[in-house]
């Protein structure tokens, strides 16, 4: 069976879950999005593209941006990065504060909010034009300039981002933020507001799916080992306290966002992006999780 037929079957068979879950409401701007949209795009290493549904409708990628900022910081700092942030799954919510206090300001991993705030701080220290350079990196990964920050999303999140502000303050207290907290928060929220569609996300993740190929986009160059390690972190930490469930049911490295997007890769085969704004209690897209579970079931290929 070809990928297009598989996507069509998945699209039909997941309709039974289409009313389950609610879009994230803690970011007011996200509540303006029609929750019933649903799209999938899959891109193969051989250069083929398959899509279905609302795969060309842009949405805020939210936490999926954490993979891109991690890639930049890993390039800039190399192994020293791990002095500031760990590589262990958190088993906690993406915005948990408790663990950060117990572990004295060292976030468990770069894909939870605390870790991404440290990564944002590193980029602010290292880059001359952080916001422009971050955007250019993602544009280069997608081969298009047609990607922008959603300013009203970023502002909406800053105005209501009390928990993230608490996390940033805790990090600063423990000496794990160098820059002004407000600058770090604003940069982080802009990253989360990045607006892309499934096709662009699948394109951006394709280079992560083959560590044997050179990885260089704008100034960001990763070694084969670094690409593998980013995959390892996505596998173990990409879905917060549902990382085990995603490994169990899907079996691919991936990353979710509260905008309802999920990007995942099947090593040396394909990248895939799914979008449906209705989330489960852990903040991951209900239809997205189901679609990817069906994808690895129907293709009979996962990393295991
Ligand atoms: O910082 C936040 O809470 C959001 N901008 C991003 C959280 C997120 O996407 C978690 N993903 N499932």
Automatic annotation (TrEMBL):
The keyword Hydrolase applies. This is Glutaminase. One of its GO terms (biological process) is glutamate biosynthetic process. Its EC number is 3.5.1.2. HAMAP family: Glutaminase (MF_00313). It holds the Pfam family Glutaminase. InterPro entries: Beta-lactam/transpept-like, Glutaminase. It is an enzyme of class 3 (hydrolase). The keyword Acetylation applies. PANTHER family: GLUTAMINASE (PTHR12544:SF29). The gene is glsA. Substrate binds at residues 63, 113, 157, 164, 188, 240, 258. It comes from Bacteroides coprosuis DSM 18011. It catalyses: L-glutamine + H2O = L-glutamate + NH4(+). Keywords: Acetylation, Hydrolase. Belongs to the glutaminase family. SUPFAM superfamilies: beta-lactamase/transpeptidase-like (SSF56601). Homotetramer. One of its GO terms (molecular function) is glutaminase activity.
